[in-house]
Amino acid sequence: MRLLTIELDRPRCEGHGLCEEAAPDLMHLDGNGELVIDVPQVEAGTPEARAAAAAVRVCPVAGLRLA
Amino acid sequence: MSGQEPVARVVVVGNGIAGLTAADALRDAGFDGELTIVGDERHPAYSRPALSKALLRDELDAHELPAPTHGATELLGVAATGVVPQRRVVQVGGEELPYDRLVIASGSRARRLTDDPGEVTLRGLDDAFALRERLATRPSVVVVGGGPLGMEVASGALASGCEVTLVSQGRPLITQLGRHLSDLFTTSALEQGLTLVETGSARLDGPSRVLLADGTALEADLIVTAVGDVPNTEWLAGSGLARCGALEVDHRGLLRPDIAAVGDVAALPTPYGTRRIPLWSSAIDQSKVAAAALIRGEEAPPLSIQPYFWTEGFGLSLKAVGFMPPSGEPEYVDGGPGGPALIRWPGAAAAINYRIPIPRLRRAAAA
């Protein structure tokens, strides 16, 4: 089992929230529009990992990484 | 594969966000065969919206995307020159690439006012870096085009310390975003020192002169045109795939069962007729749906797009959902005129200098 970490580059985040739309179970924007990573680690190959990858991909400012 | 023939080879033409997402989504749909991406730019896939925003301001890496994980063979810096659907091959640099499924994501290019290769536009990464360098020398600038791109370029040029005139056919942004948002951005732009010239038409007269409808000439060190985009479909001439230069796809993004067209190049069915929706998240949504449809056929869900659009400039940041322009005056859901605000029209909503997750903005539009 390999764990992947969702990393947020906070200064880049513009608060679009497209990532929340792609992976609502893993992250959300709080009341101030700040992104909160609710599930910072996902297991490679699982639906969660695919959702995390989709969230990373959809960010137009590349504020997220999955490593 | 639900009774369909096996899919061993997929070719994706185009390495923008549409091609990249299609490649990812093909893998997500279970395709583990040979995947090839053909991109005419030598750069890895990047974020195009950033080019006229953060990249123009200061952030040199604002366009960079995480490295791809789709494991495709990437042929970059070469253009596809044709498709023969009957033989299922794509022509690339004199070679033929066979495919079982093809994704056309060849994007669009800047519409130009002249045939002069020196006409300055902003569409690709090379354009953006070149424009940054020019702006750093603080030339006087005329931007031709009052759409979102023209406004972003004008804002970036002002922020670089240039004297900037925007030439717009009618009020800036009014065609794209409607009167309310147009007024908001125009007011802010004028306050920040933009010179605005409205004209019925404009044409370039050499590298440093713009002629307006009334015969007036504007001169500047640098003229940038931002007058829309043209889908890249010429390379498909003779393939029978394009109709009058348009790639009209079905509600799963398919031209035929084995060929999808996605992103800025594709015209898709919408509540407002068949049209292109050349926006970041539209490209992503289209690509996911079409990739699944290529692998899984009619089991795959159809496309449902509620466009998401954002722009920034002159101290304003706008996020909007729904088909634009909206009609009539908006209702203020939160905040008020002149400050951060969440506003809505029937079927559309916008956030101005107001941080809000997209799902909530979508709910405001639907309310």
Task: Report what the structure shows.
With 67 residues, chain A is α+β, with helices and mostly antiparallel strands. Chain A has one domain (3-66): Alpha-Beta Plaits (2-Layer Sandwich), CATH 3.30.70.20. Chain A is 25% helix and 27% strand. Chain A has helices at residues 18-22, 47-58, and strands spanning 3-8, 27-29, 35-37, 41-43, 64-66. Chain A has a 3-stranded antiparallel beta sheet, with helices on one face. Chain A has a two-stranded antiparallel ribbon with strand order 2-3. In chain A, strand 2 and strand 3 (35-37) form a beta hairpin. The longest helix of chain A is centred in the C-terminal third of the chain and has 12 residues, at 47-58. Chain A is globular. Chain B is α/β, with parallel strands linked by helices. In chain B, 23% of the residues lie in helices and 29% in strands. Chain B has helices at residues 17-28, 54-57, 125-136, 148-159, 174-191, 280-296, 358-366, and strands at 9-13, 34-39, 73-76, 80-84, 89-92, 95-98, 101-104, 108-110, 141-144, 164-168, 195-198, 202-204, 209-212, 217-219, 222-225, 229-231, 247-248, 254-256, 259-261, 266-270, 273-275, 308-313, 316-321, 331-335, 341-345, 348-352. In chain B, the strands form 7 sheets. In chain B, strands 3-2-1-7-19-18 form a 6-stranded mixed beta sheet, with helices on one face. Chain B has a 5-stranded antiparallel beta sheet with strand order 22-23-26-25-24, with helices on both faces. In chain B, strands 11-10-9-15 form a 4-stranded parallel beta sheet, covered by helices on one side. In chain B, strand 22 (308-313) and strand 23 form a beta hairpin. The longest helix of chain B has 18 residues, at 174-191. Chain B is globular. The mean pLDDT of chain B is 95.
In the predicted model, the low-confidence regions of chain A spanning at least 5 consecutive residues are: none
**Tally of individual helices of chain A:** 2
- The radius of gyration of chain B is 21 Å
Overall 3D shape of chain B: globular
Fraction in helix of chain B: 10-25%
The overall pLDDT average of chain B reads 95
The side-by-side strand order for the widest beta sheet of chain A comes to: 4-1-5
Percent in strands of chain A = 25-35%
Q: Class of chain A in CATH? A: Alpha Beta
> What distance separates the N and C termini of chain B?
40 Å
At CATH level 2, the architecture of chain A is: 2-Layer Sandwich
> How big a fraction of the residues of chain B is strand?
25-35%
Overall mean confidence score, pLDDT of chain A: 91
What is the number of E strands of chain B?
26
End-to-end separation of chain A: 14 Å
Overall outline of chain A: globular
